[in-house]
Amino acid sequence: MRTAAIFSNNMVLQREKPIKVWGDGADGRRVTVTIAGHSASDTVRDGKWCVTLPPMSAADGLTMTICSGAVQIVYREIAVGEVWLCGGQSNMEFEIKDELNGQKTLDSLSPECGVRFYYTPKQRIIDSDFERNERQAVWNMASPEQARAWSAVGLYFALEISQKLGVTVGLIGCNWGGTSASAWVSRDVLESDAALRLYLADYDAAVAGKTPEEMIAEYDAYAARQEKWWADYSALLAARPDIAWQEAIEIVGESHYPGPMGVKHENRPCGLYETMLQRVCPYTLRGFLYYQGESDDHRSESYEALLSALIACWRRDWEDDSLPFLNVQLPMFRAANTPDSKNWCRIREAQANVYRRLRNTGLAVLTDCGEYDNIHPKDKATVGHRLALQALCEVYDRMPREQASAPMFSMGYAMGNSFVVRTIHAADCFHVDGKAVGFALAGADGVYYPAEAVFSPDCIVLTAKDVSAPKFARYAWTNYMKVTVFGKNGLPLAPFRTDHVSLAADQTAFQSETAG
Questions:
Q1: Which of 46, 124, 222, 474 could covalently link to 259 via disulfide, CB atoms 3.0 to 4.6 Å apart?
Q2: 488 φψ region: left (φ > 0), alpha (ψ -120 to 50), beta (else)
């Protein structure tokens, strides 16, 4: 008899909700779980058992005992507090040791800071090493040594929530850099939508005619080559930190990332759903923190459907269709010498649409936090703080939306030669850092020109000298720009558009804006 790998000393259990504890064992054996005077039992069937403990108030220093006949497991130093799962790709995975003020933050940590972390082992495939690797993962308390590889976004979020609520916060890191949302959902989810089936079609085409054994051998050969390339590149970067990418690859050769698709690739559809997410499900949670979308920018037109499906899938698996899902809207970003295809605009729009449409969701707007030519901005404290604002407002009811949420487009209409934009979350008006930029108007022809803006509480009036009869308006409809318009609450005005033009028309509009 044993528990699932996520249960260990120092774990955090979710307060004020029924707590699930599960594991495996021999059929017919009776398993009893006891903590803080509460007990629950189950009989092992088909090798599995699962008990549900009653809700408990916040507490620290508890002990859990799991008994089955003469077999006994004891977990100590358990806290009951708030538990959040940190999902997504590299910007959620981004480690605190690499963050802008990460070392200072690390130096301030101690077990008394009220944050603990469990990192779901990053495993590509369920193979002979899978169980051994999984069993090595444990919950850790905060310290400068233990926390170096923790999610910086998650840590900053948890520190603020712990301080505001006065409880221990547990984070479950379940993320992998460079991965699509399609890697984190079940196959039936992708099969249920024609747009999402394209992810499966791409995979099937990539692996056609290959056996699992051939795919594994091909991937292992790639991994060995890539490990050597990374060592060479890292050594070059250490010696010449300012070297340009083109010169670097002329010296060390091209990177082969992301490698051949197959059963061992971390980005295969539904793969990490099986090897990571399902390994921590259904650990009782308060909700999900999610920072992702960069790796789906090639299919931005279907991202709203994909993100919606992911939220529904996770809530279904946790058997709670009201579980909070707090999302990070992508910041500004454009790689140097890359045209502005406006694909990140569509990802941001999809994220905003999901926030408006699905209940119990939050949106941390980050347009002012992007870095030109750097897809991994180093300031993660702002990200964690804005997620904390969303949690304190949408989940814990500790602050109003006017304080916690970015100003957002509500409705718009033409009025003579002007276009009136109505917003929410800016009842105290706006703050402009220098000159208001990023606004554009178009007439019936859909050609956009830069617009001037006049601000009043929850209202922006736009005019453009080249548009006498405006029909459409946009703001920050670009992959990268300097953001200068904020609500008086300090949060940036969220991007918006009032049209929904085709990609071809979008490119024409972009060229017109650039020429203007």
A1: 222
A2: alpha
- Residue 245 confidence class, pLDDT cut points 50, 70, 90: confident
Q: What is the CA radius of gyration of the chain?
A: 25
| pLDDT one-digit tens code per residue, 323-340 | 999 999 999 999 988 999
Cut 0.90: pTM above it: yes
Going from the C-alpha of 58 to that of each of 15, 16, 240, 395, the distances in angstroms are 6, 8, 51, 17
Average of per-residue pLDDT values in the chain: 95
> Per residue in 452-497, pLDDT tens?
999 999 999 999 999 999 999 999 999 999 999 999 999 999 999 9
Stronger pLDDT, 22 or 508, i.e. the higher one? 22
C-alpha–C-alpha distance, residues 424 and 226, integer Å: 49
**Closest among 416, 417, 484 to 455, alpha carbons compared:** 484
> What gap in Å lies between CA 95 and CA 153, rounded to an integer?
8
* 244-267 burial: b if 16+ Cβ within 10 Å, else e: eeeebeeebeeeeeebbbbbbbbb
The alpha carbon dihedral of 279, 281, 286, 290 has a sign of positive
Q: Which amino acid is at 382?
A: T
- The C-alpha atoms of residue 236 and residue 15 are separated, in whole angstroms, by 49
3-state DSSP assignment of residue 288: strand
Three-state SS for 370? coil
Q: Provide the terminal-to-terminal Cα distance of the chain, rounded to the nearest Å.
A: 70
**Over 80: is that where the pLDDT of 116 sits?**
yes
Neighbours of 239 (CB within 10 A): 8
Cite the beta strand spans of 7-126 per DSSP E: 12-14, 19-24, 30-35, 38-43, 48-53, 59-68, 71-88, 115-119
Token pair of 14 as six digits: 């979710």
Cβ–Cβ under 8 Å, residues 447 and 505? no
Q: Which residues, including other chains, have CB under 8 Å from residue 503's CB and lie 6 or more apart?
A: 301
User: Three-class SS of residue 414?
Assistant: strand
The three-class DSSP label of residue 357 is: helix
**3-state helix, strand and coil shares in percent for the chain, rounded to the nearest 5:** 35, 25, 40
Structure tokens that stand for 187 in this block: 């196959």
CB distance 48 to 157 below 8 Å: no
- In angstroms, the CA 322 to CA 333 distance is 32
